[in-house]
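BUG-713 | component: ligand-complex export | severity: low

The export step for dioxothiomolybdenum(VI) ion jobs runs without errors, but we want the raw record kept on the ticket for reference. Input record follows.
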Amino acid sequence: MTTTTGTLTTAGSVGSAHVRVEGRAKVTGAARYAADLPFAELAHGWMVLSTVARGRVRSVESAPVLAMPGVLTVLHHGNAPRVDGDYVGTLGRPDPIVACFQDDHVPCAGWPVALVVAQTPEQAREAAEALAVQYDEESHDVAFYAGRPGTYTPENSPMLQAETLKGDMEAELAASAVVVDAEYTTPQEHHHALEPHAATARWEGGRLEVVDSNQGSMWVADELAKLFSLDPASVRVRSEHVGGGFGSKGVRPHQVCAVMAATVLHRPVRVVLTRRQMFTAVGYRSPTTQRVRLGADADGRLRALDHQAQNLTSRVHEFVEQSASIGRVMYDADAHHTVHRVVPLDVATPTWMRAPGEAPGSFALESALDELAEKCGVDPIVLRSRNEPVTGPVSGLPFSSRNVLACFREGARRFGWADRDPRPGLRREGRWLLGTGTAAATYPSGAAPSTAAVTAEADGTFTVRISAADIGTGARTALTLIAADALEVRPDRVRVRIADSDFGPAMIAGGSMGTRSWGWAVMTAVDELQDQLALGGDIPPEGITVRSDTSAAVAALAAKERHSFGAQFAEVAVDTSSGEVRVRRMLGIFAAGRIVNPLTAHSQFVGGMTWGISMALHEEAVRDQASGSHVSADLAGYHFAANADVPLVEADWVDDPDADDPVGIKGIGEIGIVGAAAAIANAVWHATGVRHRHLPIRPDRVLLSGSRDIASG
Ligand code: MOS
């Protein structure tokens, strides 16, 4: 891939590979992350989390700890400032874990019970580890399994369609020539960004200033204002550089603790979470159990699609992993049923994690499709083409564009699918059995209202200000390219400043909606600026600034089924004597709108697919039923794909601009992981003849299942 810096043209930046504008600052260490910025009189807070899974805090024995070197204070439910956790924020009600130290109630292991603040992080840690907390322990229950007592169907809400139903399911299943009825499970998984959660809070000139690592500075500012009952104008949150988020970096206990301590101590306070603390304090992906029933005619045309998904949540907050929603978009059937159910347990609340819903949901549904293809004797890609809907299967809405078959065609050509013998267990290479698999991918493509300001500076350059977040995606660079094209200048004449809540409301880096939503706001502001500049006249020293607000334009979008799509392909080798599964190559072809920066877009897709390898083969958080805590809650004990596990992963895309977006963007943040684990599981079946319906496909599971190894006799 070539890198152009736009030296010759003043247009065409969008669509050309461009290195990150902040890349040099990042690799030289000049870029400061939330825990890097120096502050005079900075104090350091260390969180203390509960060691019991349910009960009450009887006492926090602060006195000995307060006598330790450097210790400034110990905050707990007996002395912490009051906050108000009873509000509805941008994405609903907050997880009560952020209303730290408001009572003695402990609803799960790893619940914040105290904050020790000291002059140095080492002193804070030493004291936090020495702090004795006594509990009145109550019995807990963390066992999650299909059909668990207490499971219920949540209410529909603006963020959740719990259940959809059309047609007569049992009648269509009975009339089907071929039926698949299988249960799939996915384990608890964690999003541990390279940069742990970190925040520094201070009061400055009557304003609360927080330097934080998050996915939306305006979002976090708004939540902190609500929690601390502050005028929103008196809260400023900045997060210029963020080392990953993946859904975990909204308002979390560390910011709240930092603000509390800064308020009490009248000095800046920094709180950084440890890896171990991140296992409970920042959310995770719930385990799921999913039952999929497919009924089809002999040629594979679906008569019935039933997807019932279940996840766990905490007892203090309802989070629904919307695994069944993928079928509402992917496949039609005469009888169509999708439902989410949830069961509260004595655990920390799960949250959004890259492709929430679609990632585990696609494992179940796209595995079931492969099982149906096998039973019907139909090629998996042909099966999908026979079930390609004309309109949204549940919504009935037209698709904004739906190029999933183009992805399969291009992917099949490049992957070499045409020569594939569909029979399983036939290909052997030494101790390895070889197989290939495929799966479809989809993820919603949305836009949300945002504001941006663009300034024409007197020196002929331009400054864009928007409270966007670049969590490693390359959003800052993408916005630079978008603004440069709109302004008809080279990218080096555009300065994009992001991640400051003082820049005004904007979409968070989430839901694969960030770059699209922000790009729209930037385009709108540039349009208005150019109208002003067209009037002529000199640019004053302070420049000419125009602000945009896309609320009206976004609200006016016609109702359509708006999604990105893709096709995943994987080749695996399975050693049936050791149980080892190795992915040999992967290819993902996506139809995901106009690609702004091929360089960083490629990284996004490959990153998601790599995570898919990890999801298929490695990741699994294990809970000890007796203590209610994680086993091996660190990055040594939580296994995930490392370099040696990741072979050639290729990603590319087909032309698929969104006609309703000013730039043509759809959004690419999450779709890369969708379908990836199913493609791998389907390849493992093709290699061995054994279906793996439970992730991860660990060596012991491969060994226990054996293989229908026809070749070895
Ligand atoms: Mo993403 S899970 O919407 O950060």
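Assignee comment: Attached the raw record above. The mean pLDDT is 96.
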